[in-house]
Amino acid sequence: MIDFLTYEQIKEAADAVRSRITKTPDVGIILGSGLGELAEAVNDAVFVPYQEIPNWPVSTVEGHQGRLVIGELEGQQVLVMQGRTHYYEGYSMSLIGLPVRVMQSLGAGSLIVTNAAGGVNPTFNPGDPMLITDHLNLMGMAGNSPLRGPNLDQFGPRFPDMSQAYDLEYCDIARQVAAEHNIILNEGVYAGLAGPSFETTADLKFLLAIGVDAVGMSTVPETTVARHGNMRVLGFSGISNKANLDGSTITTHEEVLEAGQVLVPKLEKLIRGVLCRL
Ligand code: HPA
User: Fold this and answer.
1) How far apart are alpha carbons 11 and 130 in whole angstroms?
2) Which of 16, 232, 274, 278 is the most core-located residue (most Cβ within 10 A)?
3) What does the pLDDT read at residue 64?
4) CA 209, CA 121: separation in Å to the nearest integer?
């Protein structure tokens, strides 16, 4: 089990992907739970199953396919992760960051990250996307960062700035695209928790009180690694369920996957619209 990725391990993975493609990817895209269908939109696609990439963390979760889909979308070369790995699956934080390191090694300068999330903000409805304007790093704050361990100077500094984790210009583009397509696009702060249990009612009241709008079990590690390597990041949460703030309902993975069906067409419009403006 890899605790701290080395530059050589990253290079090995990146070389394996590079040997399968002819063009440099511009944008990396990570598809969250129930959102994998978006990858079907990629043209002239090359598929690379995660099992065929050295050191790659393979996802075990239902609703996550496990492959890279690399090709063209709206004039951009995209490298899409159809399925991602989560920390709760047992991989080290450093390894959760490997896919983003590979994107950086291949030359991608931007990352679009998506996830399924619970709506903590009581005005949010399932089926509506949220533009991530900032995140709360509840996994990393207490020491569990994907950047823990020897710094990889080839990618970025020991102490990277995170003050504008989500690119302001990309956020503006996303707002414009949403308006053009009449898509309700909420905005807010995403909190990344380790999971895999959903939150208790007390957890959710705490998250609401500290300014969280949506909660999930991913994205924060990938954005942290992306910013360390100076990628510009755009993030969308697909709100799949209302957070159970009064303890009256239960949250299930099935409901998360079902909401994906409603969210995929909206996220596809948003991502296509953003890509053709980059
Ligand atoms: N909590 C945490 N993660 C999630 C949720 C939730 O309510 N919904 C989808 N992912």
Assistant:
1) 34
2) 274
3) 61
4) 10
Q: How far is the CA of 4 from the centre of ligand 1 (A)?
A: 28
SS3 161: coil
The Cα 41–Cα 44 span in angstroms is: 10
Integer CA distances (angstroms), 202 to 162, 187, 209, in order: 28, 23, 11
Pocket test for ligand 1, best of 120, 203, 213, 217 (most atoms within 8 A of CB): 217
The pLDDT of residue 136 is above 90: yes
Domains and CATH numbers, the chain: 7-277 (3.40.50.1580)
Q: Which of 276, 185, 165 minimizes the C-alpha distance to 238?
A: 185
- Alpha-carbon distance of 197 to 278, in angstroms, equals 37
Q: pLDDT-based confidence at 63, cuts 50/70/90?
A: low
4-48 pLDDT tens trace: 999 999 999 999 999 999 999 999 999 987 788 889 999 999 999
Please tell me the distance from the alpha carbon of residue 118 to that of residue 39, in angstroms, as a whole number.
23
Ligand 1, atom 9, lies closest to the CA of 117
